[in-house]
Design brief:
Blueprint lengths: L2 H31 L7 H14 L8 E4 L3 E4 H25 L9
Antiparallel strand pairs: 1-2
Helix pairs in contact: 1-2, 1-3
């Protein structure tokens, strides 16, 4: 396997992980925003899976509750932003170290 293939596999894995993380956090945000019942199995599962991802960012911002049902979690939006920045930085580091070294020819 050459370095281009390894870079492709690593980048693909990173994109997959990023989409998975953003998907769970995005679903959490939408479900909370629309007041989905945590008694539902799917909703409960999404909340459980996303709790681990949200933990480092919990309580950074206040949670706004409207009409005792609709929850606006700014921490979830911030977590999504931070995971996106982290993924972009990782991709940049991978690209930097995986770039083929240019060879100069002396005349």
């Amino acid at each position: 396997m050459n370095s281009a293939n390894i870079r492709y596999v690593v980048n693909s894995f990173l994109y997959f992980f990023f989409v998975l993380v953003e998907g769970f956090l995005g679903l959490r945000f939408v479900l909370k925003l629309f007041g989905a019942s945590s008694a539902n199995g799917f909703v409960s599962w999404i909340y459980e899976m996303s709790d681990v991802l949200l933990q480092p960012f919990r309580d950074i911002f206040p949670i706004k509750v409207f009409e005792n049902t609709y929850v606006l979690e700014f921490s979830t939006l911030f977590a999504m932003l931070m995971y996106a920045v982290g993924a972009l930085l990782l991709l940049a580091v991978i690209d930097f170290f995986a770039m083929p070294k240019s060879t100069s020819t002396k005349k």
